[in-house]
Amino acid sequence: MADTTPSNQEEKKAFIQPAPAKPAEVPAVEVPAAAVPPTAVPPKTPYSSPIDDLKAKVTSVSAEKRWAISCYIPVFNLITCTITSVRMANNKFCRFHARQGLALFGLWIVTIFVALISQTLSLMLWGVLIAVHIAGMVFSYMHQETKIPVLGQLAMKIPEFWLFTFLTGKKFDEEHQQMIENKTEEKKTN
After folding, report:
1. What number of H helices and E strands is found in the chain?
2. Residue 41 vs residues 30, 36, 37, 44, 69: alpha-carbon distances, Å
3. Which of 4, 102, 144, 181 is the most exposed place for a label (fewest CB within 10 A)?
């Protein structure tokens, strides 16, 4: 059993160490603003995540640019160009890029058949196609109607409203188109 004699309790107290003493407080010294390096100053703007930055950039791009850029998504050109042709039928800029996107999709089909003959040649064509898609996206973002050499001339032979008429069964009349273009020009001048 435990011995509770006074001498045994004194020995236990001797082994208990006292709490460490608090260090002496150093008085605060004011440093002049000129002495602080500029990198030590915290930024004044709150932190924004890269996702928020990306959302802000995407929403700052106009709707017609987004539709035109979507026409150059590799392999999905057929889908995005048809949707763009129907949704943005009254926008000449979007129709231009939808026609070029359809021509690029046709070139993707050609590269598949070329792959049956020569895989090396097909890979080279795919590399060129990816570069052309990226260039098309850049031109769309810059709001330019730049024709792709050779392919652009073929794309312009696709009737502008053929896809719209084919998909919706409605005829897009010229008078309606002129009225829409006149309104957009008035908005740009104001």
Report:
1. 9, 0
2. 15, 8, 7, 9, 41
3. 4
**Which pair of tokens denotes residue 32?**
């002049």
- Residue 12's pLDDT is what? 56
Closest C-alpha to 72, from 88, 84, 63: 84
Those residues with Cβ within 8 angstroms of residue 163's Cβ, 6 or more apart along the chain or in another chain: 81, 82, 85, 86, 98, 102
- pTM beyond 0.70, yes or no: no
Q: Which two tokens stand for residue 38?
A: 């500029």
Q: Residue 81, class by beta-carbon neighbours within 10 Å (0-12 exposed, 13-18 middle, 19+ buried)?
A: buried
Query: 70 or 62, which is more confident?
Result: 70
| Cα 42 from Cα 29, distance rounded (Å) | 19
Mean pLDDT of 155-160: 80
Residues 165, 168, 170, 174, CA torsion sign: negative
Question: Who contacts 115 (Cβ-Cβ below 8 Å, separation ≥6)?
Answer: 122
Instruction: Identify which of 94, 92, 138 has the alpha carbon closest to the alpha carbon of residue 83.
Output: 94
Quote the CA–CA distance of 182 and 23 in Å, as a whole number.
Answer: 80
How many Å apart are CA 22 and CA 17, to the nearest integer?
A: 15
First to last CA, the chain: 100
For residue 172, what are its two tokens? 């897009």
- Whole-angstrom Cα distance, residue 98 to residue 17? 82
